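seq as requested:
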Amino acid sequence: MTGKKAWSGRFTEPTHPLVERFNASLSVDKRLYRSDIKGSIAHVKMLARQKIILNKESTAIVRGLKEVEREITCGAFGFHDRDEDIHMAVERRLTEIIGAVAGKLHTARSRNDQVATDFRMYVKEATLEITGLIRNLQQVFYKQAKKHIDTLSPSYTHLQPAQPIRLAHWFLAYYEMFDRDVSRFLDSYKRTDVMPLGSAALAGTNFPIDREWVASQLGFSAVSRNSLDAVADRDFAVEFLFCCSMTATHLSRLAEELVIFTSSEFSAMELPDAFCTGSSIMPQKKNPDVPELIRGKTGRFNGHLISLLTLLKGLPLAYNKDMQEDKEPLFDAHDQLVSILTLSADMLGALRVDKERLAKRSEQGFMTAVDVADRLVMLSVPFRSAHEIVGRLVRHCEDRGITFTDLTDAELKGMDPKLARIGVGDLTPESSADGKKSVGGTSRQSISARIKEMEKEMKKW
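struct tokens:
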């Protein structure tokens, strides 16, 4: 095989040099070498078990494959310009090591089912790696929530002050977001965990292979049930990219809030210096570059997802060379997400919070207005009427530059007699937050209950 293409018998002239470079995917797919060699070892052992090749041939091929893996791992492997992809590079070097018997490795399989298997094995490992990193980030949110269960803070809608909450509630909101991400990745894992090897080019094989045995060796829970679909299917890669994109979107939302809350205008939080940079011209600057880059890279994830969806949308069955373009976006998404999740966990763990400033902010902006309206409703005032009454009360205070605590009984009675009966001035951010005792609410009671549930959940991870 050395120096010749695997398909050279059909052709009468060599491949054009530009086509060689254009057609090659080795620079991208060589990271699949471990999966490729693991799959080949299982395949060749099965061939011997089924008496398709001799035991001594299988032994020689396995020995040679392990040597190839050792060479690639330690950096001694010599990749050649004529190696189209990692599969042919491995087979070419195997031939150099053990001779012509290496040619029997490709019995009863095609590069079509081979690459589909390698790719699925990679995505399975990547999925488990990423879910582990998300779980680590969730633990950071859990720790911050426990630390800040008594820290009062404003919450926002439309980026305008809304209602007082306990800051733990904010951290736990992200815990829930990322919990959904883990669920999505693990659900997609089930559909990735199907082995296509044995489908050959697209129609199956004439040899009496044992696909279930190979699947058990490679850690797959099932084998594909249609060879045509198996070699053409990249749904698992699309799902993986969607899961990455969704997780990146959640990380981007977090990054945006960190940029806002650490700004001098808010000054509610501070990022550690290790996660910021300075300005080349303004000595006073401390820029939140890590959150900004996380926010910016999210577009890259979305682009990768659209790229693969677009690639697949017009492909006829079964394998087409277009599908060679499926790996680069996925590999990049995997690499970037691993980096971002790791950075986010470290950054969030070292985040500093200005408790006093947040507590003071939670007293501003008439954020207990909903509580005033609710108290009126408890006196049988229809909510829409209560909303209108409190709206006028807020406008009255704003016109006079005062707060609810500054209102006199006469002013309250003048607005509506029932206002004087509900203790408008007694409402505090803490009482407002702790009034929200419904499941999922921001009361200390509800948050404490959720934290206990989380502790039980984390023991099962």
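The chain has a mean pLDDT of 95.
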